Amino acid sequence: MEPAEHSGLIRLLSALFYAGSSFLITVVNKTVLTTFRFPSYMCLGIGQMFATLVVLYAAKMSKAVQFQDFDRSIFLKIFPLPLMYVGNHITGLASTKKLSLPMFTVLRKFTILMTMILEVYILRKSFPKHLVYSVVAIVFGAMVAASSDLAFDIEGYTFILLNDAFTAASNVYTKKKVGTEGLGKYGVLFYNALIIIIPTLLASAFTGDLHEAVRFEDWVKATFIFCFLMSCFMGFVLMYSIVLCSYYNSALTTTVVGAIKNIAVAYIGIFVGGDYLFSWTNFIGLSICMSGGLVYSYLTFNSKSPGSNTEEAPELKIHITQDLIKT
Q1: What mean pLDDT is predicted for residues 247-257?
Q2: Helix/strand/coil (H, E, C) string of the chain?
């Protein structure tokens, strides 16, 4: 179902729901992994997958939601989305642990460009040139900000760029899969978690990650347990909000909403958190990036539906491809 077929209020509410969920889980994950120094981001991801299975299974049993029962066709219907989800989970939690909150949000801007490219080649979408230029401005600002990162961490940068790629692919394929017969929004969430939780658990045990998590000393602290459980629950909420936003809007709009949320998070992180090393180059780059994000958001939410002018689509698609190659 195309975005134009949904009311503006539903589209807006789903976008705000995703923005709020994304903001809260970033703060909670940062608290668990950095403040409490929990050693296993992989186990935190497992906890979030487990919470998703418990909530959706209980909802299915109580007839609150409906989706297809498990059979062999599920694998073909949902592939390769589980691979995107597990990659997104692991690299996202790892980058949250390795990078300061402002730099994390700045480098996440590359997801917008990646999503746009994937929508052009996978979903055959097309975009006007001024929208492409605003994306270039966002990426340029992110590069300026990252160039002066005084706390440069090559491992953290690698994780965040991988996370960008997985997020973009996950958003695009989520949009593609929610329309699959028998799955829907809830089936996509449930079977993604079901398929990836066991391999992730095995990988955690094999790498020693699970052993470090079990030995963690703060399991006796009520505050840590509360934050850990909150992170697990928010993992489900975030995944649901992503599917909901992609369903009522588009993969690109979901990415845009994430960028809007990052505007608030990045500037708050400068004053709160204690791990941001200030430099003018970084701050100017951050401001360019955020300004581009605001322009991009304005153009996106005030533009016509992608399907409202189908005759111009081929021409716009040629323009965007050429512009991306030049940049």
Answers
A1: 77
A2: CCHHHCCHHHHHHHHHHHHHHHHHHHHHHHHHHHHCCCCCHHHHHHHHHHHHHHHHHHHHHCCCCCCCCCCCHHHHHHCCHHHHHHHHHHHHHHHHHHCCHHHHHHHCCHHHHHHHHHHHHCCCCCCCHHHHHHHHHHHHHHHHHHHCCCCCCHHHHHHHHHHHHHHHHHHHHHHHHCCCCCCHHHHHHHHHHHHHHHHHHHHHHHHCHHHHHHCCHHHHCHHHHHHHHHHHHHHHHHHHHHHHHHHHCCHHHHHHHHHHHHHHHHHHHHHCCCCCCCCHHHHHHHHHHHHHHHHHHHHHHHCCCCCCCHHHHHHHHHHHHHHHHHC
pLDDT for 273 beyond 60:
no
Sequence-distant (6+) residues with CB within 8 A of 200 are 42, 45, 46, 49, 86, 89, 90
Q: Determine the pLDDT at residue 229.
A: 93
Compare 136 and 274 and report the one with higher pLDDT: 136
Tell me what the pLDDT averaged over the chain comes to. Answer: 76
Q: Say what the pLDDT of residue 276 is.
A: 58
pLDDT of 233 reads 92
